[in-house]
Structure formats: C-alpha cells, structure tokens
Amino acid sequence: MDTLTSIKVFRQVVESGSFVAAGERLDISTAMVSKHVMHIEQRLGVRLLNRNSRTLSLTEPGRVYFERCKTVLDDLEETELELGSLNRAPVERCASAVRAGPPDNGSQTTSPNTVAAIPRSSSMSRSKTAW
Fold first, then answer.
1. I want to staple 109 with a disulfide (CB 3.0 to 4.6 A). Which of 28, 97, 117, 125 is the partner?
2. Tally of structural domains, the chain
3. What is the pTM of this model?
C-alpha cells in the first residue's frame, strides 16, 4: 500500500471527521479508507485515532502525526504548484533513433539507451564501420 496515499487519506479522515465522509471526498470506499488508516497505524506502531460507531477523535500521537503530515502535504502541494508555474525551457531529448549495427545489415532501429546496453563483441570492436 502506498504510504503517501495513506497519509493523504488519514488527513482527509481527520479533516472531514469521519471515514464515510473521507471516502466520499476521495471517491474510495469506507473499507479502503479504513485500510489506509490501519496501514499507517501498523507502520508507526501507534494508534492514531480513537474510533467507535459514533465518534472519532485523535489520540495524542495522532494529533502530532496529523499536524506534521498536514505541514508536509501542504509544503509538497505548494512546491508542485511552484514548479508547475516556472517558465523554464523544455529539456531537449534525443528523439532520434540509431541503428544497432552497420547500415544495411538488417538490424532493427533501436533507441540510444538500448545501443549503450548492447555489449560489443570483439569483431565489432575492431570494425571501422561508422555508426
């Protein structure tokens, strides 16, 4: 289970006040909300929420964890917005393909990364054929 997603689900549970409301806002089932919260609690080895059929409240470790998670998630979102708004030149990528062998030998067109991964045989090393 993805921990970042579980943290986001936990935050939504606390902010919305219930597993059902969190599930509705995140468009996931209440059972999946519960699994995400249990994943975080098991991972940390502490109970984060006191829950019964009528109430939901944070434990002290849950309060501390929620405040830290909220800060981290807010910072992450802010950083992503900042990066998305930067007007930077696109990174040019080598989109051209190269041949994985001398011309006209029936070789297939291959990307540059694949060419780098092809081991050179001793006969290819001695060849004067330009690629």
1. 97
2. 1
3. 0.64
